[in-house]
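Justification of computing resources. Each target in the renewal requires a structure prediction run like the one illustrated here; the chain below, 635 residues long, is used simply to show the kind of job we budget for.
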Amino acid sequence: MKIKFVGLVLWLVFGLLWGQRASAANVLVGDGTPASCNEAAFDNALAAAQSDLGGVITFNCGDATHTIDIYTTSVIYTQVEIDGGDKIRLFAQGSAPLFVKSRFFAVNPGGWLTLRNITLEGARSPAGDGWGSQGGSIVVWGSADPEERTGLELFSTIILNSASTAWGGAIANEGASVRIENSLITGSSAKWGGGYSGANGADAFINSTVTASTSEQGGGGVRFWNSLNSQISDGSVISGNSTTGAGGGIENVGGVVAIRGSYIENNSATQWGGGVKNSNNDSRVATILVENSRISGNSSDANGGGVDSNGTLSLQDTRVSGNSAAGFGGGILHWGGQLRLIGVTVTDNQANAGGGLYANGGGALIDRATISDNRAVEGAGLFLTEIAGANAENWVTITATGITGNKATTGAGGIVASRAYVTLHNTEVSGNSWGVYLSPTASGGSYVVVTQSSVHNNTGGGFFNGAQGTLLLGNTTVSQNSGWGVWVGQDSIYTQLKFSTVRGNTTGQVQRTGGQLALEAVAIDAGGAPVANCVAAGGLPVVSSLDSWSSDASCGQPIRVSSNFNLGPLDLNGGTTPNHMPQAGSVLIDAANDCSGYALDQRGANRPSGAKCDVGAAEYGAVMTQEIYLPMVVR
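Resulting C-alpha cells:
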C-alpha cells in the first residue's frame, strides 16, 4: 500500500503527458448571469487557478452562448485548464486611444495550458510585448531545461480570424509541445505559418482542421521549422489555405513530420509546393512521411502542385490527384534527397513538365504505384532528369507499377528519362502518348533497364533511345503501340533486347538510325500488320547474337525468319503484366540455345519448361506457382 500511495502522490505532483496533470483548484467564472462574466472575472479566476499548482476554470454565464471581450494577454506560468462548455467566446478588443488588439494567451516556460470547448476570435499579436510578435492568439515558449515541461493542448476549440506579423497566425510554438485535437483554425494569417507555426525543437500533434488561412512567406496553413517529431493525423484537414511564398497547405523546413490519415486539399502557393513544401535548411535534412492520406486539388504558380521536396520524402498508400503547377511537377516535384512512393496513386495532375512526377537528382523507389491520366507538355507521367551515378541508391527504381493513360502535347507521355538512370521491373506502361523516351542533357545521356515488363498500346511508339542513351530490355513485351515498338536513335550508344517480344506495333517493330543494337532470343512479329519488322536507315545493319526470330526478312542476317510464330493475344497468362504466349507448334518454342541469366520469364515462371528455353518474353508450358499459407490447426 505504501508503494501505491507514493505513486499516487507522484502522479498528483508531476502528472502524466498530455493532460493527466495535478490540479489544485477548480475556479468558476460568473454567478449565472451574463453580466458576471467579463474580463475582470476571468482574470481573477485565472489568478486563483495559478496561485498554487494550477487548476480548472469553468463558466456559469447563463444558458446562451456568451462573449467575453478581452483587452490584454494572459500569461500562463503553471498548469491551467479552461473549459468553455461550448458556450464561451473570447473576443479580442483594443483599448483606446489606438485600439490595438492583443493575443489571448502567452504560455511561459514551465506553463501548460489546456483549452476545451471554447472559441477564440479576432486576436492580434502586438509588437514589442516581449514575445516577438508571434502567435496571433497564443504563443508558447519552451524551456532549455528538459525537466521544465511547457505545452499547449486544444480540444474541441475554435480559433477564428487571428493574425500575427511574424510566426503563427493563430498559434506560435517555440520549442514546446502542442496538441490540437478535434479543433478548427480558420481565417488566420501570418508572415510564416498562417494557422500554426512550430519552431526550434517544437513538437506537435494535430488532429484538426486548418482552413482559409494565409501567409506571406511560407506555410499558408501550417509551418514547421526545425521541429521534432510532429504529426498531422487521424482525419486532419488542411484545406483552402494559401501563401505568396512556398507551401500553401504545409511547409516543413528542416523538421521531421508525419502526415497520417489526413487530407491536404485545395491549397495554393505562388511559389513552390501548392499542397506541401519540404525543404532542407543549412543544418538539417527535412523529412516528411505521408501515409494513408489524400493530397488533391492543390496548385502552384511555379512548381510542385501537390508536393515539392528537396529533402527526404516518403508517401505510402496515399492518393495524389487533381493538382497543378505552372512549371514542373503537377503532382510531385522532387529535387535531391531520397524519394519513396509505395502503394501510391498519382492521377489527374498537370504541369508543363512532369504532370505526375518531376524528379531532378537524388534517388527514388516507386513500388506498387499507379501513375495515370496525368497531363503535361512533356513527361506527362514521369519526367526524370539528372539522376545518375555509380551508386544505385541514386537511381530511380520502379517496380510492380502501372503507368497508364498519361498524355503529353509534344514529348513522351509515359516516362521521359533525361540523363536518368532508371530500372523498371514488373511494370506496365500503356495507353500513354509515347511509352518510354530517353533523351540527353548537356551532362550526358540516360541508362534505362527494363525487365519483366510490358509496354503496349501507347501512341507515338513504345521506346525511343535518344542521344547518348543506353537501353536494355529483358523478358519484356513491346506490343500494339501506334508507331515503332523500339526506335534506336542516331546518336544513341547501345540498345539491347533479350528474351523479349516485339509485336504488332503499327509503324514497325524495330527501327535503327544509329548506335549499336543487339538482339538475343527476341521474337519480332508484325502481327499481321502490313509493315516491315525492321528498318535501318542508311543501310546500317541490325546486329544480333543468336536465336532471334522475325516474321519477315527485313531484319537481315543472322536473324531467323518464319511465319509460324503462332503467338496468342496480349494477355496476362497468369502473370501481372500483359504478354504474348507462344501456342502449340510455334517456332519459338525450345528455340533458344542459351538462357543463362534468364531463369524466369516475364511472368516469373521458370525457364526452360521443355528441352530448351523459348524465344521471346513468355515461356510456353511453364506453370505459375503461388505460395499459399494455410492456418495452423492444433489438435
